[in-house]
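User: Can you help me understand a structure? I only have the sequence.
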Amino acid sequence: MSMPSTFWADAPTPVLATEQFPRILAGVIAAEPHDRSVLRIFGIPESAGSDATHKPSPRPQIALKLYERLIEAVLASGVVYSLRTVRVADDFYIEYLPAQRCLWLKYQQILGSRLLIQMTEEQAALFEKTARQLRAPEPDKDADSEAEIDTSSLQGEMALLRAKGQRIELPARRLQHYARIKALILAAGGVYSRNGFQFGAAIDVKEVLTRLRGGEKPNPKKARQAFFTPEDLAAETVAWAAEYLGDLAGKRMLEPSAGEGALAEPARAAGAKVLTVENHGPSAQILRNKGFEVVERDFLSLSLADIGLFDVVIANPPFTKDQDIAHVIHMWRFLRPGGVLVSLTSPGWRTGRTKAQRNFRAFVDNIGAEVEALPAGTFKAAGTNVSVLRLRAVKPVEGAPSGRRAGRKG
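Assistant: Let's start by predicting it. Here is the structure, written out as tokens:
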């Protein structure tokens, strides 16, 4: 493909802003020449001293990994389009124009292209240097090879990390930005384990590292509201439930949306017969590995015919979009008369104006629930500073005096 006929002064707006260059560089660093999800790059000078206007050699195998949402944005622009189902590796390639320091995304089947990014002089030099390094086999990870990488920035030091199996390996050299890198990897689901970070079997570690190098902040727990109950709070919450039952020995207990069983564990330790419900596959497997009985379903889809009644229900449901409200109301259906429900919730329902929030306030009053606000920062260790309430209610036994029900606190 030749350079588009557009005069450079009238060049179109790039898909990516110059400030998004780290995403492009991260793609080059993470490139795998044999990966069918990558785009090939053409037009890289052989060396830093090469004539920038030379004719590129035919399709050198240098790869640039791009995010699918970027491809979707390009297709939606109407400039590059497809007559059939698009396969990124087969249908698109990247052409680098050294004279203009830009990348064009091109379509191989028909005439069509889109300006991907316009780089600064410094960015273009770094891009060329990084891309040229992919022509040769990857060197051993030693001090000499690492010395070639510009580590003056966070993204530069990210380039020193390596994905190996289910781990992100740290380099031998000291990282200036280690504290920030560690925080990002922990938020992405890693657990520190001697010179690196271990991830669960269901995690695509290469993808996580590519996103981190591109400046993203992947946080799977935040994405699915998986802020697990801190250990001390879990033990206190289970004990709070047990106050109305004397003890939990032999009692049938339910933890809906159980995550990894933060509440189920102290309940089991207290002698409860625990059933957990969790629809996230990796978390459900962790629960099984811990020896819990697991129903791998969305809790809100379950009926009494599925799991029956319980003596106690203890939960820390997801908070967003009033999911906590829906969970608590649904939990109440699974509680046998005389049983106790304890759940953490957001405080939004107390003052919110939506129909669901107004109805929930009436529901809480009707069941005589005791409600207390937990101290600020209670969930800081779990990765969030969200405010949290805790409510407790006993399901009345028909004919029993109403004094058995919990009194509401302000």
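Now, to help you interpret it: The mean pLDDT is 76. The longest strand covers residues 335-345. Let me know which part you'd like to focus on.
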